[in-house]
Amino acid sequence: MSLNRRDFVTRSAATAAGAALVGGAGLAAASPAAAAGPDDAVAKGKPNKKQAFTVMGTTDLHGRVLNWDYFTDAVYADKAHNEVGLAKISTLAKQVREEKGWDRCLLIDAGDTIQGTQLTYYFARVEPIATEADTAPEHPMALAMNTMEYTAAALGNHEFNYGIGTLRAYEEQLDFPLLGANALNARNDKPAFPPYVIRKLKLGSGPALKVGILGLTNPGIAIWDKANVAGKMTFPGIVETAKVWVPKVRAAGADVVVVACHSGMDEATSYGDQLPWAENASVALAEQVPGVDAVLVGHAHKEIPQRLVVNKETGKTVVLSEPLCWGQRLTCFDFEVEFDRGAWKVVSLSSRVLNSNTVPEDPEIVNLMTDQHKKVVAYVNQVIGTAKIELSIAEAPYKDTPIIDLIGRVQADVVKAALAGGQYAKLPVLAQAAPFNRTARIPAGQVKLRDAAGLYIYENTLEARILTGAQLKDYLEFSARYYNQLAPGAPVDKATLTNAQNTPDYNYDSVYGLGYDIDIAQPVGSRIVNLTFEGKPLDPSAQFVLAVNNYRANGGGNFPHVAAAQKVWANSDEIRNAMIAWVKAKGVIDPADFAAESWRLVRAGQPVF
């Protein structure tokens, strides 16, 4: 007879004496049945029958608890009929636990949990969990994941978006460890979070099987969240760190090692970011580090049910799996092991993914979220102004659209106001903007907070950097690699016009305040023509202030010049809030105030559209 969740919780508490081992932080976590000892036959090394257990995994949840989109204030919907959220994952996980046995299943995550929706933004900024008050709210992700009995979670790069203080407050609320073997204290190069955890599973009559879970995060944090981590934490390479810690996990007694790795499989670096270490290094980890059985992969937002990689040193096959982000899929690593000659050995291992759209939401999780959900729905539905016409971002990847110009105008206005009266006040201010969210729109008539927030879905802040005209041209040439080359007269297919596989929308910048054509008949590096400022050819030696988000200013996307450019101003408030404040102050969104139509796609001088 299988245990239900309530029985499992009681049993776990009753066997806390058999606590799991946790590396690097002196943590202890309850283990379902670690206290029982081996029988005499097993102790003498005689073969034990094969036993099965499952390690389930999620990644890149990005604040999704319910199957709800706070930007549209409606049930989540996409063209593929996917569904999202931990409430869905909870139903799937309970089904697996009932099938396999509650005491034969672990549930882990590979990072990026506390950023991505207005739900998580609300509890980071509006009613923050990082407060000295005794009445600090419980973070919705902590509440849901604790209830679902997660075993461990790796740190993702977006965990640092709200600062280390918010991350530590979140960590305090968890009943399981946040793992990060390569997240180090800058002052002593020691792990700032537990590197690993070991959990014991009682399988049959043999000794408890020890499952080691090692957590690794992305070195790019040092660039993308420089303002939050510089001088406080460092993030060495994934493979280099794994080579140090996997042997330590084995030496601590782990019979099986699973790595929760916030790093994709395929691209050496993501979207052109030139890091000291490969950003997407999970395959390299499996190939180069002996002693790993399975890797739960994150960061890339891809669905890869199973990838088999042969370790170059041992010849052993390592199983990798990445479930689709936002709780759309649940990975299951299905292990079969046997105890033979005094040790547990993996007999077989495979992975699969389960689809969230096949099950209903778990009412236990839905009910837990009632109060938080209501607060956030009320918050995002505040009316902040009106719009004369509907504005859509749908065509922004290939046309200069008013909605992108609105982002540029807001950023330029904020920087101009900040520099007014100072030594840089006379320099012209330009602004960088990218089409983050292809579904974003501002409706005609009433504009709500969620409409404006949906234009800027990331937690970026604003900076001002000085660039020359020549540097701005280089910047635009780099951005124009977004487009595939297309000969004059060739058919135009909007679906294949952009090179979004290698250059995602968020790394395609236009510059508000300049005029230019992008000739997509030309090769990358020779596409920007007719570059003007205020109707005149751009002076290569002229200086400009570029309003730019902190991700780009810190080197995200590897755009030329900007990271090394002189910083003349920076702000700690999210650009999203600047947009909301701008709309509130204006009262009416009128494209006549900001629409520029300053750039276009051409082929040999002829407009594509």
User: What is the topology, as strand order, of the major beta sheet?
Assistant: 2-1-10-11-13-14-16-15
Structural class: alpha/beta
* Oligomeric state of the chains present here: single chain
Helix content: 25-40%
User: What's the CATH class of the largest domain, please?
Assistant: Alpha Beta
CATH T-level topology of the largest domain: Purple Acid Phosphatase, chain A, domain 2
> What ranges have pLDDT less than 50 throughout 5 or more consecutive residues?
1-45, 269-274
Count the DSSP helices: 18
What's the story with the biggest beta sheet?
8 strands, mixed
The CA-CA distance between the termini, in Å, is: 66 Å
- The count of DSSP E runs of length 2 or more, i.e. the number of strands, is 33
Overall pLDDT metric: 90
Shape: globular
State the CATH architecture of the largest domain: 4-Layer Sandwich
Q: What fraction of residues sit in β-strands?
A: 25-35%
Could you name the CATH homologous superfamily of the largest domain?
Metallo-dependent phosphatases
CA-based gyration radius: 26 Å
Give the count of structural domains: 2
Pfam families: 5_nucleotid_C (PF02872), Metallophos (PF00149)
Keywords: Hydrolase, Nucleotide-binding, Signal
Domain 5'-Nucleotidase C-terminal: 383-563
Organism: Kitasatospora aburaviensis
List keywords for this structure.
609 residues; alpha/beta; Purple Acid Phosphatase, chain A, domain 2; 5'-nucleotidase,  domain 2; 2 domains; 8-stranded mixed sheet; 6-stranded mixed sheet; 26% helix; globular; disordered N terminus
